């Protein structure tokens, strides 16, 4: 679905305009860390922007302690519109920054900062195993404060629900 300023909502006809992958992360306390949109579309024009109703949240890159969310959006382009090693690495870097941003706000408001490293539990999609990503998330020399946990294919309805359904 799409909407241009001043026009009615309509469904897109071109495959180039469909969002194929949406990536979101929640922690065990229910905190939502931004969203990544992986699209085939290479660009968006200003007339595609829809203003949120007055008083509603927008993607303003703020940490919202009341709503348990980081209000951020990371749009990325991939030729097929699906998560790739490159787009997932961009997400992991941004997720690391979102976690640091939230931790700083928690500490500044009298809360407890987030202890690193954190564990990110994922399905075992091929985008999760690039050499660069593994260098940044594994072992003592890891550059990011995130460690990745995956399961074997077809073994879990929790991390691999689609494997179970299909």
What are the defining features of this structure?
166 residues; 4-stranded mixed beta sheet; alpha/beta; 22% helix; globular; two-stranded parallel ribbon
Structure description:
The radius of gyration is 18 Å and the shape is globular. The longest helix is centred in the middle third of the chain and has 24 residues, at 85-108. The relative contact order is 0.13. The mean pLDDT is 81. The chain has helices at 85-108, 131-137, 161-165; strands spanning 19-26, 32-39, 62-64, 69-77, 118-122, 146-150. A four-stranded mixed beta sheet has the order 1-2-4-3, covered by helices on one side. With 166 residues, it is α/β, with parallel strands linked by helices.
> Percent of residues in beta strands?
15-25%
Helix-strand pattern: EEEEHEHEH
Mean pLDDT: 81
Helix content: 10-25%
Q: Over the alpha carbons, how many angstroms does the gyration radius reach?
A: 18 Å
Which descriptor suits the 3D outline? globular
Set out the fold topology.
Layout: E1 19-26, E2 32-39, E3 62-64, E4 69-77, H1 85-108, E5 118-122, H2 131-137, E6 146-150, H3 161-165
Parallel strand pairs: 2-4, 5-6
Antiparallel strand pairs: 1-2, 3-4
What is this structure, in a nutshell?
The chain has 166 residues and is of the alpha/beta class. It has helices at residues 85-108, 131-137, 161-165; strands at residues 19-26, 32-39, 62-64, 69-77, 118-122, 146-150.
